[in-house]
Amino acid sequence: MKNDVIIRFSHATIAYQQRTALEDISLEIRQGEFVGIIGPNGSGKTTLLKSILGLICPDTGSVQIFDCACHKLRCHHKAKIGYIPQKGQIDPNFPVTVMETVMMGRYSSIGLLRRPAKRDRELVLNALKEVEMDGYRDTPLGHLSGGQQQRVMIARALAQQPEVLLMDEPTTGIDTPTQQSMIHLISDLHRNLALTVLLVTHDVNMISPHVDRLALLKARLFAVGPPAEVLSEKTLSEIYGKQVIVTTQEGGTYVIIGDYHHV
Amino acid sequence: MELFTKPSAIETFYEAVMFEMLSYEFMQRALIASVVIGLVCSIIGVFVILKNLTFIGAGTSHAAFGGVTLGYLIGFSPLYLAILFSLVTVWVVGYLSRKGYLKLDASVGIFYSLTMALAVLFIGLMKAYNAEIYGYLFGSILSVTNMDMKIILILGAIVLLIVYLFFKEFHFITFDEEMATASGIPTGWLSFLLLNMIALTIVISLKSVGAILVFALIVTPAAAAYQLTYSMIRMFLYSALIGVGSSVAGVVLSYWLDLPSGATTVLFVSAVFFLTVIFSPKRRPVFSLR
Ligand SMILES: Nc1ncnc2c1ncn2[C@@H]1O[C@H](COP(=O)(O)OP(=O)(O)OP(=O)(O)O)[C@@H](O)[C@H]1O
Ligand SMILES: [Mg+2]
User: Fold this and answer.
1) How far is the CA of A44 from the centre of ligand 1 (A)?
2) Angle, helix B25-50 to helix B232-257, in steps of 10 degrees
3) Contact across the interface for A95 and B232, Cβ inside 8 Å
4) Is the beta carbon of A262 within 6 A of some atom in ligand 1?
5) Comparing B284 with B124, which gets the higher pLDDT?
6) How far is CA B263 from CA B39, B135, B138, in A?
7) Where residue B290 falls among pLDDT bands split at 50, 70, 90?
8) What confidence tens digit (pLDDT) does each residue in B207-217 have?
């Protein structure tokens, strides 16, 4: 099971009107893998996740998940992919509670014309427990802090009972201790629920101790493999256009990139 | 307000309402129509407010008016043509924005003026002055006929049924359409369905509230309810209460004080809106009502 390929990019190229966001990407992600995706702003990380969800189709080449071309994904396939988008603006006055937000993760599986049942409520409460937010079920979503909102979004994805979790910068804009606990939470979920996780981030150092592989992206896939292999001074400085120092400390690889703010 | 404190005023009010008003068949119709319209508009209004579709409501009501004028010009049912014009507007506008050709607001802007230009043209082409047309612009609930009543009831029931059936999907789509799509909700046709329901709601209200004012009946109750609660269900409840209450109050007051019904309703619901803004627990923790 562990070695089954669940997501497959073969020579996928995706362009918006003028700009090529992804160029000739070939990448296979196996079931149960935890892959971190890094790269500078505008390098196509979000586009990569969106193409897996079938929100954007490749112009040439193909993107497949569960052995199905992404633009042909049926609703029951999509229900198995939990997606946490790059943090948008949540209208703090939008009338929705934490419980209602997480319940939305169930809607697709519940199906049209049917109401949530007892089992759906159980799944929602379990998901809230997983992210330690069960004390907030009736709180308006807009009343939570950024980190708490992000936990709720993870709970919403978990309530889908996904096989794959796609996360786009889930820790951006969150204080460092909370970031650490979020990463541990994600790492635990990956292990306990045997989830395949793709996580986009700018924080190489935070993510590299937890992932199986890192993918370094800048329109093209520059490197992919275990963190120690991918994080070389040469490749990183080429991509970020800044001086890069890679050190090994306490068994982990540590990266300092020029005056790049996010790292 | 002072009127209500004087016993004589209350007596005259009750006499006027209870005995005189309800004895007329057209007033009974007007009241039933105002309840249905108030309810449908305020329910759809919640989605319009939360999904920022405010401008599409305005555009569609003017398109519907274009249909009405064509109806009078060629001697065909104004109502059917209003339905056709407003549906075609949301179809084209929805299609353009889905395909990424033009932002929703921009294409609504084009249709808004296009259909108004058509309306002016059609009116100009008419041989005789027709006062009824202006009824569609400013609304006159007293002119609602038995035939209109049937259409209001049927279309109103359709809109409410659709909202009831797809409530959870509409909720998700208004919250975050991309997330809904990603999790496997068929958002394409559901958002389209929602746009169509907005168009139908406007058509239902056209004759009684008027193309220019209908919009207030859709947006204002929901906007008022938005000030009061953080729960989606409560927002629907408050919006419906404010919508139906204002709609009925508008008819009763307009009859009693001999004022135009559409304008009276809009003034009433706007007053309610400003009260909710002042007393909103969201902005004024001092007055917290929760
Ligand atoms: N909707 C769009 N229309 C046109 N171009 C787009 C669109 N979305 C992204 N792009 C372009 O595609 C490229 C990749 O964008 P993408 O959002 O995938 O980058 P990213 O790696 O997620 O960046 P960030 O770190 O800032 O989130 C960018 O050059 C961007 O300008
Ligand atoms: Mg991004």
Assistant:
1) 6
2) 150
3) yes
4) no
5) B124
6) 18, 12, 8
7) very low
8) 888 998 898 99
Q: In this structure, are residues B35 and B205 in contact, taking their beta carbons and an 8 Å threshold?
A: no
- What's the whole-number mean pLDDT along residues B53-78? 93
CA atoms lying within 13 Å on the CB side of residue A215: 25
B182/A53 CB distance under 8 A: yes
Task: Estimate the share of chain A in helix, then strand, then coil, as percent rounded to the nearest 5.
Answer: 35, 30, 35
**Cβ contacts of B61 within 8 Å, gap of 6 or more:** B86, B202, B206, B211, B212, B214, B215
Task: Kindly state the average pLDDT of the residues B95-109.
Answer: 87
Contact B260, B138 (CB under 8 A): yes
Residue B48 alpha carbon to ligand 1 centre in Å: 29
Unique residue bearing structure tokens 């014009």: B85
**In the numeric block, which tokens belong to residue A260?**
């790049």
Say how far apart CA A134 and CA B220 lie, in whole Å. Answer: 35
What is the tens place of the pLDDT at every residue in B30-47? 999 999 999 999 999 999
ipTM score assigned to the predicted complex: 0.89
The arithmetic mean of pLDDT across residues A192-199, rounded, is: 94
B104-125 and B78-98 helices, crossing angle to 10°? 150
- Residue of minimum CA distance from atom 16 in ligand 1: A44
Task: Decide whether any atom of ligand 1 lies within 6 Å of the A88 Cβ.
Answer: no
Mutate to test the interface with B, among A74, A84, A90, A96 (most CBs of B within 10 A): A96
Distance A46 CA to ligand 2 centre (A): 4
How many residue pairs bridge chain A and chain B with CB atoms within 8 Å of each other? 80
- Distance, in Å, from the CA atom of B190 to the CA atom of B192, rounded to the nearest integer, reads 5
What is the token pair recorded at B161?
A: 């049924």
Per-residue pLDDT tens digits for A47-84: 999 999 998 999 999 999 998 887 778 777 888 999 99
* pLDDT score at B22: 82
Cβ(A81)–Cβ(A65) below 8 Å = yes
